[in-house]
C-alpha cells in the first residue's frame, strides 16, 4: 500500500533515529492528511474487536471517505472531541477482571493516526530490552532474551507496577512528551484522548488519570512513560554498579580440578582393582565439580546486571551479592 503522506511519517522516524535530542514540530498538520486516515482504517478494520459497537452504537464497517473529510474539518477548526469509551470488564486467568474501553470507530481511527505519528517519533529511541506493545516484539522475544542471556544471574528483582495504566499522572506524561514534541495543538489532542472519559452502566465518568486500557494510543503512551524507567536502569543502575572483566576462580573448584588431573595421570598403566578404585575416585571428583560453582560466589570485584521489561512488568537480574540486589531494589522503588 502506497500513500504519499506516509513519506512524512518515514521522515519523522529517520530524524528521530539519527538525532537523539531531536524535537518534533508541526505534527498536528498531519491530522489533516486523508491518506493517513485511510491507512489507519485499513490497519484496524480486520481486528475482530473493532466490530464491537462503541459508546455511540456504531461499528468500523460504517466508516467512509465522507466520515474522514468530516474528521479533517473538525481537526482544522479544532472542534474535534473524543466521545468516550464504553467500559466493560474482561475476565483474567486469576478469576479477577480488568477494565477495557471500547471506543467509537471514528475515535479508533483518529487514535491510530496519532499512534502512527508517536511510533515514528519514539520507536527509534526505545531500548532494545523493552518488549511490550512494540513491532516484532512480544512475550516470546522477552522470554528468549532471558533464556539466552541471563545464565549467570543469581538474584532477580521482579516488579509489576500495580494499576499502572489507570494511574499514570497526565501532567507528568505531557511533561515527558514535551521533551520531544513542540506542537501544543498535537499535545492538546493527546490530552483530549486522555480525558475522554468512559461510559459505565450508562453513566459517563471523567478520567482524571491513567491511559484507558483498550485505547489504541494507550500502549505507546505507557511505553513513553516507562521509557524513563528504562533510562534510569541503564544509567543509574547498570552503568553505576557493573564492574570487572571476569569472576575469580572458586578455590574449591580449582582444588577439585587439580585432584581430577592427578587421578587421570597414569590411569592407563593401572590394572585390576587398583584401576577400578581409581576410576571410582575420578567419577566422585567429577560429581563434586558439578556441584561446585566454577567462579567465586562472593567475588565483589565482578558484577553484571541484566534488565528486561514487558509493559509494566519488569525484571532486573543481578550477578552479584544479595546486599547489592537489595540496594538496587530500593533504588528502583524510590524512582518509581
Outline the structure in words.
With 336 residues, the protein is of the alpha/beta class. The protein has twelve helices and nine strands. It has helices spanning 6-18, 34-44, 65-76, 105-122, 139-149, 164-167, 170-177, 184-194, 218-241, 251-264, 272-290, 322-335, and strands at residues 24-25, 85-91, 97-102, 155-160, 181-182, 198-200, 203-205, 304-310, 313-319. The strands form three sheets. It has a four-stranded mixed β-sheet with strand order 3-2-6-7, with no helix packed on it. Strands 4-9-8 form a three-stranded antiparallel β-sheet, with helices on both faces. The longest helix is centred in the last third of the chain and has 24 residues, at 218-241. It is elongated. The chain starts with 5 loop residues before the first helix and ends with a helix. The model has no long low-confidence stretch (mean pLDDT 86).
Question: Quick recap of the structure?
Answer:
By secondary structure, the chain is of the alpha/beta class. Helices cover 47% and strands 13% of the residues.
Furnish the topology, listing elements before pairings.
Blueprint: H1 6-18, E1 24-25, H2 34-44, H3 65-76, E2 85-91, E3 97-102, H4 105-122, H5 139-149, E4 155-160, H6 164-167, H7 170-177, E5 181-182, H8 184-194, E6 198-200, E7 203-205, H9 218-241, H10 251-264, H11 272-290, E8 304-310, E9 313-319, H12 322-335
Parallel strand pairs: 1-5, 2-6
Antiparallel strand pairs: 2-3, 4-9, 6-7, 8-9
Helix pairs in contact: 1-4, 2-4, 9-12, 10-11
Q: How do the strands line up in the largest sheet?
A: 3-2-6-7
Biggest pleated sheet:
4 strands, mixed
Going by helix content, strand content and strand pairing, the class is alpha/beta
Mind telling me the C-alpha Rg?
Answer: 28 Å
SSE string, helices as H and strands as E: HEHHEEHHEHHEHEEHHHEEH
What percentage of amino acids are in beta strands? Answer: 5-15%
- Record field, number of beta strands: 9
Amino acid at each position: 500500500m502506497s500513500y504519499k503522506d506516509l513519506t512524512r511519517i518515514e521522515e519523522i522516524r529517520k530524524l528521530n533515529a539519527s538525532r537523539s535530542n531531536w524535537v518534533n514540530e508541526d505534527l498536528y498538520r498531519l491530522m489533516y492528511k486523508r491518506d493517513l486516515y485511510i491507512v489507519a482504517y485499513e490497519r484496524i478494520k480486520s481486528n475482530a474487536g473493532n466490530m464491537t459497537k462503541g459508546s455511540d452504537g456504531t461499528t468500523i464497517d460504517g466508516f467512509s471517505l465522507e466520515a474522514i473529510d468530516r474528521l479533517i474539518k473538525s481537526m482544522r477548526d479544532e472542534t474535534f472531541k473524543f466521545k468516550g469509551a464504553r467500559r466493560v470488564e474482561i475476565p483474567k486467568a486469576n478469576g479477577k477482571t480488568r477494565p477495557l474501553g471500547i471506543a467509537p470507530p471514528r475515535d479508533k481511527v483518529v487514535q491510530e493516526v496519532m499512534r502512527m505519528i508517536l511510533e515514528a517519533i519514539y520507536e527509534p529511541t526505545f531500548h532494545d530490552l523493552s518488549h511490550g506493545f512494540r513491532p516484532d516484539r512480544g512475550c516470546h522475544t522477552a522470554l528468549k532474551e532471558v533464556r539466552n542471556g541471563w545464565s549467570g544471574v543469581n538474584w532477580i528483582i521482579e516488579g509489576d507496577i500495580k494499576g499502572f495504566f489507570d494511574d499514570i499522572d497526565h501532567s507528568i506524561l505531557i511533561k515527558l512528551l514535551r521533551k520531544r514534541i513542540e506542537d501544543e495543538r498535537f499535545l492538546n489532542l493527546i490530552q483530549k484522548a486522555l480525558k475522554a472519559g468512559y461510559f459505565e452502566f450508562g453513566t459517563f465518568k471523567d478520567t482524571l488519570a491513567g491511559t484507558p486500557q483498550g485505547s489504541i494510543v494507550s500502549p505507546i503512551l505507557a511505553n513513553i512513560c516507562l521509557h524513563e524507567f528504562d533510562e534510569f536502569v541503564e544509567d543509574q543502575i547498570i552503568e553505576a554498579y557493573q564492574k570487572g572483566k571476569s569472576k575469580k576462580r572458586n578455590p574449591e573448584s580449582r582444588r577439585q580440578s587439580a585432584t581430577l588431573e592427578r587421578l587421570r595421570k597414569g590411569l592407563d598403566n593401572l590394572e585390576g582393582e587398583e584401576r577400578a578404585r581409581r576410576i571410582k575416585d575420578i567419577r566422585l571428583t567429577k560429581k563434586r565439580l558439578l556441584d561446585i560453582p566454577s567462579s567465586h560466589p562472593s567475588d565483589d570485584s565482578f558484577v553484571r546486571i541484566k534488565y528486561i521489561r514487558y509493559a509494566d512488568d519488569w525484571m532486573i537480574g543481578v550477578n552479584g551479592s544479595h546486599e547489592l540486589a537489595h540496594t538496587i531494589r530500593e533504588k528502583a522503588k524510590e524512582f518509581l
